[in-house]
Design goal:
Elements lengths: L2 E9 L2 E11 L6 E2 L1 H5 L10 H13 L3 H12 L7
Antiparallel strand pairs: 1-2, 2-3
Length: 83
């Protein structure tokens, strides 16, 4: 383990901050967060993968992109998820 690092992201339950261990693979020299791989946060943005997936699905299935963004703002308080 090299260090512990914090990450914050929006989830269905609000803002979440976690500390995760940062490792260096002795064989490849690659630096990784094992927790990110386990949780499938490989390219974690501002929101959890579940929130991002829900936003995409709502935009696809919903009547419009604007209404999907408004729904996320109303129900979850994420007014910039689709910007």
């Amino acid at each position: 383990m090299i260090s512990k690092r914090k990450i914050s992201f929006g989830s269905l339950f609000g803002e979440v901050t976690i500390k995760r261990n940062y490792y260096k693979d002795r064989e490849t020299g690659e630096y990784i967060h094992l927790l990110d791989r386990y949780l499938e946060f490989e390219e974690l943005g501002e929101f959890s993968p579940m929130v991002e997936e829900a936003a995409i699905q709502l935009a696809i299935d919903g009547p419009s992109y604007r209404k999907a963004a408004k729904a996320f703002d109303t129900f979850l308080g994420y007014n910039d998820i689709m910007s």
